[in-house]
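Practice set, problem 2.
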Amino acid sequence: MMKSFFLSLLVGFLFSKDYVKPTEIDGKKKWKGEGTTPNLESIVIGRCYEYIRIVNPSIGEKNCTEIWEAFKKAFINKDPCNILPSDYELFINLALHTIPPNKSLFWENNHLLVTSYSDRTRRYMPLCDTLIASFGDFLNWCGQANDTGFNYDSCPNTEECENNAVESFWKIASVTYAKQSSGVIYVMLNGSAIGGAYPVKGFFADYEVPNFQKDRISRIEIWVMDDIGGPDLDSCGKGSVQILEERLKTMGYDITCIDNYKSVLLLKCLDYLNHSDCSIVSY
């Protein structure tokens, strides 16, 4: 059953884009992206133990060293532009845990707001608050062919090749998270984002929405949050948000959309108590 589960995750991952050939310095490839985060092993193993002991001990015992080795095996000693989502299959299997119903929170263009509001699984459990994502959140990594070490100097970005270690990691993590989500699904978008609150090409649009399990979802609630003092570029029923609403309705989902959801606005206004945008939450 697990094998068939992961085979279904990989649909759409089979074709890759051509990539820009990197420059070479002293015979070593120099990529455009940042190199591997220093002390990566210590960081992610520490995060793993913090997650299972403090953040979310309800998931039970996990072997953090074994999960680290599976994570590393996905990209070490390989061409950094030939890392597929399937290479992380063992890692995903070892780190996988359930997402409680009504706790899934998807997002675009407001990572820090989502992590603040979710409060490390106490309110919600966005992808970034799962054990899987703790291995990659705000980190960078890659290896290189014929070398068992990390490349700390540079790593390929998506412009250079789509099948790089980080991109492929987030693809399979996003698909897995979407498939695990159930009950009421929440989506937080940024109404002040240049280019639209709902990017029609992005992880949410390309890897999460298509993998929602309709028989497990009761409804979807969208929150469109403007930046404090920022422009109101997108809102419910307009622009790119309307595109998302229509897409989800076509898929058969019951949709609710709220502009500047008050609970989240209260959190945003903690740093802007005297701003006119926060008058609605003033006492």
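Problem 2, part (b): a different protein.
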Amino acid sequence: MAAAGGGGAGIALHDFSGRLGEQRVHFHAMRLRDSLFLWVGAAPALASLAVAMCSPRDSVPVAASLLGDPSDTASACLARRLASKTKKQIFVSYNLQNTDSSFTLLIENRIKEEMMAFPEKF
């Protein structure tokens, strides 16, 4: 597991990885002032991008697909769950073929584990 940090202008970078099931998954988090960009993948790609944020009018965060196939909801679903947890605007790029709900739960739990270990990076 590798970690990197940066602090200029309120931006923090954090890279980590893990073996989830049979697959090695890499994560790149970029914390901005009031938002977080999170990239998840096994190889360099930006095939999808979604954003989610909390709304004062609804208990469930709103989410939108910004890039990629709108029928692929993995990025938006993960962004929505993380926005609910952090109360921040969350951008997620989920670039893995496996979108099975049990696998995405492993992904989410790995991210939450890292958030607990390094809260200043998120």
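Answer key, part (b): The longest strand covers residues 58-67. Confidence is low (pLDDT under 50) at residues 1-8.
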